[in-house]
Batch of 2 targets.
Target 1
Amino acid sequence: MTRIAVVEGDGIGREVVPVAAEALRALRPDWEQVPVELGLERWRRTGTAIDDADLATLSSCDAVLFGAVSSAPHGEYPSVVLRLRRELGLYANIRPVRGSACDLVVVRENSEGLYAGRERIEADRACTERVITRAGTERIARVACRIAAGRRKLTIGHKANVLAADRFFLGIARGVASSEGVPTDDAFIDALCLDVLRRPERYDVILVENMFGDILSDVAAFHVGGLGLLPSANLGDGHALFEPVHGSAPDIAGQGIANPVAALRCAAMLLDHLGDTPNAARLEGAIGRVVARGFVTPDLGGTVSTLELGSAVVAEL
């Protein structure tokens, strides 16, 4: 039996993930859903945010449907996300951005750069180490090339004009693309963010390192209505985790107004990843029809609640 780990996490993750899980249950009642509690609220209650048993459960499942985890304002709370990426080998973050004016995919390296957790705070300074490796760049470039092979082209975003690590990243990525026969161009990341806003139709698949990918995909969300609509996949060689781009959004948590579309689209990506492309398309179609009727949450100008939108999508299915 196919087993899906369902992790609500913190903040609005506890509101949007149940909506996505219900849609998944409507389409695949034969799949087992395995609840796993992780995150800041569990840490505050028990002193543990994630343990080895949780990782064993996640590893035993065929995929993970993930909400969000909050950060703590001090250094005692371990990063759940970094541990998940490290322990499950989730090195590729795939962020599709699709709307009427935009159809691109940001391929973000997920394990290196400034987000890798290699940092320290001293008496008079704080240091965060940014490391880009050949092996890490080659494997994410191969993922980007596989995606670009079925589309038009691959753009490499970087800051090679001022950062030696980016010159290293750019050279390796170009070499992988050349060996795979994938045409490429490249752009400085600051200019690229502006151009994606101005002329999104020029871009198809964009390969970037960790932090640049996080920023660029958030910028591109402008074209589809905001972060509440963007899903993502975190992929490794043996595991897959699907999460909304928006994070835990503590400022609106508990109000029932969070947009569940990103989480629903994560469920669609999960279905597609596990080979159920017809049901993935059914779910995307149902989301599109409900939103097109103006049945939307306040972030898109509507008055619909999280649960009401989710119920409408399930009814559409």
Target 2
Amino acid sequence: MVRPLRIEYPNAWYHVTGRGVARSPIFKDDKDRLRFLEALRESVEAFNVEVHCYVLMSNHFHFLLKTPETNLSRFMQRFNTAYSTYFNLRHHRAGHLYQGRFKGLLVEADEYLQELSRYIHLNPVRIKRYSKLPLEERSEILRDYRWSSLPGYIRLKSRDEFMSYSIVLGYKGGDAKEGRRRYREYVLRGLKYKIDNPKGDARANAILGSDSFIVWVKENFLSEIRLSSRDFSNLKTIRMPMPIKEIAEAVAEEYGVMVSEITKKYSKHREARLMLLELCYRLNLRKRSTREMGTELGGISGEQVIQAHRLMQKRIKEDRVLWKRVEEVTSRLQT
């Protein structure tokens, strides 16, 4: 069996999970959960690691971590040993508590932090016994679930001293009343439809990010790691993102306008501008962050890029001529 690919560097982000042996419980009561969080706090202080989200379930846990230093493995070894030793002594057992080594997925922050934090915080109501409950009941259970970092995101009095809240809340306006309200609504909206595990987009069960991020990781941190194993084979050939300049030139030619007229933030050529944003999104999705794209497209936000994509999708459903035009330009760019 190939050991999990561990990629560590300063200020890296990780989605970390641990599961009990044969899916057995890793907590038997609230005293265990309190000791687990105490061991987490002690390890955070000892290794200067930032915890941005957590949730404790009966037989597994999730963390969203940032490591200012290159020490994820040492941090998790100390933490897991501390809690496992306590658990075995208290419950008169021996042997491994966890199923294998912890899973540590390297994450591209700007693309996935919001999505991952919501996925982690929704775990308490994703279990079968809550699946048929009305939306309001599930919302209440989630808001009041004690063994999660979510209460601290929406209520100051519920905060853990070892937690870091500001970065995730920064995507919703900051760590203030309005930002906390927006984040709460963002998480609770996830109850209305199925939220897939973002890990489904990961490469080699090790990296969650755009192709440009994966290329950067490969070039800087994987040069000495053999990628011949079938587990890592999909990291070998990653297509680079298509330059926005090249896309802009194709759209400008299609509409008979200057490139500079459609790459600026406010353009009088509305349809050409929307097509440019749509093709940048379509051709570079998961290869570049929407924030990076927005910077080159006149200094707009990543959210504005996404909004333009949604608007264009609506328009091409209603306008077959426009749909055909988009498809033809896309085809030219891909040949």
